């Protein structure tokens, strides 16, 4: 793990779980898997504090444990998973676009708590949705359950590994120090048969006695819910990989749209949607789909004829970027969508996708002419100094300067091709080339550093203005309670005046800056996703 | 390693490769050697591109800030114990609100965790001290009824956080395990009923609101 990743993980843990959890996580990240007593020693924390921290980390899938042969339990931090905390807003927003408010809140609750049972998740979300509804209305559990089932069916959420059943005969056998959690592939998306009946409840502040009665009645109706819930032991978590697949599909569709047209992108989107759950993660192509099937699955609004569809498919298959491949002729022709990111094993040109993200970074840091040289090298693979100058139409002095800058940043590298066996310098070609993996890694490293810097600066800004922020919050609280008790406008104004003009200005500036930094963190995470996907899929092919 | 090496600046020494091939012409001055680390804030050659605005970006920004705020309030945000008081006071023994680190604020499913991690679950105690004493001395068969009544009573209370409600829902199935630990780790070694003791300090070090850091 690089220093940049370590620093970012630390910051994320600290911001979301506090100092104690951060210390424990840090120790595991920096020193590797270890047992509890070593952790206590290293962190200097109290034993109970470390235990608490581990419980939290395990609950959120950030740390895993393993029983060692000699019986001790070792804990290991999952660094790549910790970095995903940055992406939580994107997962939640995606769930909203696909499944509306219930979907959004279900995913949010699962992320906030690490994992939950279905009954618990549905109840919590129903309550939250009820809060936002008009008085007297409440969200029915059935609607939330329905969304839960759809999320499971499309694999966006999955079941957690389960505690093995302990057969009664082995009651005399001592329990293992830690359970060996496991789940079969086929069970991962199976929703337990529950009859979740009820509606969300509001948090009332008045008339508690009546509330109590109503609640008691409702409890009886729900059939003794004070006993163990019907889905006891069955927990659900968000399936991050599935969201990532969705993001990749989105990027593919928009790449097609920008290269061809809206209709072509819709065709590709349809094909991807049909293949959502049949494409194994890491597969390079979707399963073959016949053009007849595709035609039937096009969205209702799309009135293109079958022949037109066939023409589009042919066009897509012919495109040199090979978004779509033709795999056979049955059913009017069968087609697949190429989903892997990275150079293909065959002689075909490498996938354009990583380049799409590398390129925007360049003009902003290095200038548009550097970017031109970079694109040139990507296309031509290897070029001598002189050739770069000619093809890019840039003056020798400038080209040289840019190439050297990019060289020092590892965006391009120099390759020697000796003409003679003695490798004499005067008889050797020196070619500039883009080493895509090195460039991707360098940029990714930069991204981690950027986000860490953004977070630190944002926290610094908040600390610097702490006094003013607290004052502002107190004033808000006073205003709110005064309004609730029906204070007059003059009185309210007096309270508002407690914050002076310049102070208001300062608060505005602070808010603007913090928003900018938060938005930037989200933005950089998008680039992190693209680069990590590229690197991961390229590594798989090696 | 880089091209920096001996001979640099001193009338250019020999290099192992033909420098012309990489574009360093004869007689060209090479840049001077770098003698110090690069500045902390190098001059910005060009401004960064503006952030993409739009509904999606705005919504995700709001989500991010809301998540941050929410997570600080959840029991998973482990707060360090309050610093020790300067003098050990007699009343400390009776302070229910002192943050006892040997307790966890939520009820994990202990079946899923290594046994060595199990610690006492801290029940929501805001203003309710009575249940603790009767619980310890109650016979087991009466326990269920008392607990049911207690949890119903508790639900009537104005709870200030959703998490406590959830805790109650989860706790209802797990009373026995909790009980084991309450008895093992007595807090009170006294005959006095705690609810009678009031040392006048109504604010304890264990204030659950996030007073120390404002969250945006």
Automatic annotation (TrEMBL), chain A:
Extract one GO molecular function annotation from the record.
single-stranded DNA binding
> What segment(s) does the record annotate as region Disordered?
199-233
BP term (GO), one:
DNA-templated transcription
Q: Name one GO cellular component term.
A: RNA polymerase III complex
For whether the record's keyword set contains Nucleus, the answer is yes
- The DNA-directed RNA polymerase III subunit RPC3 winged-helix domain sits at 362-434
The RNA polymerase III subunit RPC82-related helix-turn-helix domain, residue ranges: 8-65
Read off the InterPro entries from this record. POLR3C_WHD, RNA_pol_III_RPC82-rel_HTH, RNA_pol_III_Rpc82_C, RPC3, WH-like_DNA-bd_sf
Q: Which UniProt keywords apply?
A: DNA-directed RNA polymerase, Nucleus, Transcription
Could you describe the subunit structure of this protein?
A: Component of the RNA polymerase III (Pol III) complex consisting of 17 subunits.
Q: What does this protein do?
A: DNA-dependent RNA polymerase catalyzes the transcription of DNA into RNA using the four ribonucleoside triphosphates as substrates. Specific core component of RNA polymerase III which synthesizes small RNAs, such as 5S rRNA and tRNAs.
Report the protein name in the record.
Answer: DNA-directed RNA polymerase III subunit RPC3
Organism annotation: Grantiella picta
Automatic annotation (TrEMBL), chain B:
Q: What is its main location?
A: nucleus
Q: Name one Pfam family in it.
A: RNA_pol_3_Rpc31
This protein's GO cellular component annotations are:
RNA polymerase III complex
Q: Where is the composition biased (Basic and acidic residues)?
A: 138-158
Q: InterPro entries under this entry?
A: RNA_pol_III_Rpc31
Q: Which domain of life does the protein's organism represent?
A: Eukaryota
- List where in the cell it is found: Nucleus
* Keywords of the record: Nucleus
- Segments of this protein annotated with the region Disordered: 127-216
Please list the residue ranges that the record marks as compositionally biased, kind Acidic residues: 159-191, 206-216
Which processes are annotated in GO (biological process)?
transcription by RNA polymerase III
Spell out the family assignment given in the record's similarity comment: Belongs to the eukaryotic RPC7 RNA polymerase subunit family.
Question: Per its UniProt record, what PANTHER family does this chain match?
Answer: DNA-DIRECTED RNA POLYMERASE III, DNA-DIRECTED RNA POLYMERASE III SUBUNIT RPC7-LIKE
Protein name, as recorded: RPC7L polymerase
Question: Per the UniProt entry, what species is this protein from, by scientific name?
Answer: Grantiella picta
């Amino acid at each position: 793990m690089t220093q940049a990743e370590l620093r970012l993980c630390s910051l994320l843990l600290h911001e979301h779980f506090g100092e104690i959890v951060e210390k424990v996580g840090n120790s595991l990240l920096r020193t590797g898997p270890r047992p509890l007593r070593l952790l206590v020693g290293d962190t200097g924390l109290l034993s109970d504090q470390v235990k608490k921290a581990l419980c939290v980390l395990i609950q959120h899938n950030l740390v895993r444990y393993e029983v060692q042969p000699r019986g001790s339990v070792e804990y290991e931090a999952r660094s790549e998973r910790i970095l995903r905390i940055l992406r939580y807003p994107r997962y939640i927003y995606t769930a909203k676009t696909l499944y509306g408010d219930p979907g959004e809140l279900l995913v949010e609750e699962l992320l906030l708590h690490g994992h939950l049972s279905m009954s618990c998740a549905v109840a919590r979300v129903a309550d939250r949705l009820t809060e936002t509804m008009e008085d007297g209305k409440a969200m029915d559990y059935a609607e939330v359950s329905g969304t839960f089932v759809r999320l499971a069916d499309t694999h966006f959420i999955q079941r957690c590994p389960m505690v093995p059943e302990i057969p009664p005969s082995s009651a005399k056998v001592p329990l293992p120090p830690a359970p060996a959690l496991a789940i079969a592939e086929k069970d991962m998306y199976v929703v337990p048969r529950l009859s979740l009946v009820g509606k969300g409840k509001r948090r009332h502040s008045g008339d508690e006695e009546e509330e109590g009665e109503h609640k008691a009645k409702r409890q009886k109706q729900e059939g003794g819910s004070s006993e163990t819930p019907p889905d006891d032991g069955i927990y659900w978590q968000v399936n991050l990989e599935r969201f990532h697949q969705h993001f990749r599909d989105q990027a593919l569709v928009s790449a097609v749209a920008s290269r061809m047209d809206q209709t072509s992108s819709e065709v590709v989107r349809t094909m991807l949607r049909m293949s959502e759950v049949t494409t194994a993660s890491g597969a390079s192509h979707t399963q073959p789909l016949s053009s007849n099937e595709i035609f039937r699955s096009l969205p209702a609004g799309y009135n293109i004829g079958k022949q037109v569809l066939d023409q589009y498919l042919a066009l897509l298959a012919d495109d040199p970027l090979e978004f779509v491949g033709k795999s056979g002729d049955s059913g009017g022709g069968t087609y697949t969508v190429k989903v892997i990111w990275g150079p293909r094993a065959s002689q075909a040109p490498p996938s354009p996708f990583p380049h799409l993200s590398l390129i925007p970074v360049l003009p902003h840091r290095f200038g548009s002419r550097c970017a031109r040289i970079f694109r040139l090298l990507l296309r031509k693979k290897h070029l001598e100094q002189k050739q770069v100058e000619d093809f890019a139409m840039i003056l020798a002095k400038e080209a040289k300067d840019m190439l050297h800058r990019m060289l020092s940043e590892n965006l391009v590298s120099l390759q020697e091709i000796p003409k003679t066996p003695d490798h004499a310098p005067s008889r050797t070609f020196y070619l500039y080339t883009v080493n895509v993996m090195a460039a991707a890694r360098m940029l990714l490293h930069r991204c981690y550093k950027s986000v860490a810097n953004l977070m630190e600066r944002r926290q610094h800004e908040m600390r610097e203005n702490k006094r003013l922020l607290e004052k502002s919050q107190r004033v808000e609280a006073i205003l709110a309670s005064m309004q609730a008790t029906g204070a007059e406008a003059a009185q309210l104004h007096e309270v508002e005046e407690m914050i002076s003009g310049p102070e208001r200005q300062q608060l505005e500036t602070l808010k603007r800056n913090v928003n900018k930094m938060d938005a930037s963190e989200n933005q950089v995470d998008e680039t992190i996703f693209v680069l990590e996907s590229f690197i991961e899929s390229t590594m798989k092919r090696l | 390693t880089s091209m920096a090496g001996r001979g640099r600046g001193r009338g250019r020494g020999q290099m192992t490769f033909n420098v012309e091939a990489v574009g360093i012409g004869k007689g060209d001055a090479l840049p001077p050697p770098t003698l110090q680390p690069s500045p902390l804030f190098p001059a910005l050659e060009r401004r960064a591109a503006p952030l993409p605005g739009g509904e999606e970006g705005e919504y995700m920004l709001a989500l991010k800030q809301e998540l941050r705020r929410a997570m600080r309030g959840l029991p998973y945000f482990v707060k360090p114990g309050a610093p020790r008081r300067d003098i050990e006071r007699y009343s400390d023994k009776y302070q229910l609100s002192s943050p006892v680190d040997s307790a966890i604020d939520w009820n994990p499913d202990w079946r899923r965790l290594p046994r060595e991690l199990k610690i006492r679950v801290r029940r929501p105690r805001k203003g309710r001290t009575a249940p603790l004493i009767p619980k310890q001395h109650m016979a087991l068969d009466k326990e269920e009824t008392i607990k049911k009544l207690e949890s119903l009573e508790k639900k009537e209370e104005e709870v200030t956080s959703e998490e406590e409600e959830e805790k109650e829902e989860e706790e209802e199935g797990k009373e026995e395990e909790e009980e084991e630990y309450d008895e093992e780790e007595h807090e009170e070694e006294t005959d006095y009923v705690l609810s009678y003791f009031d040392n006048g300090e109504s604010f304890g070090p264990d204030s659950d609101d996030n007073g120390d850091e404002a969250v945006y």
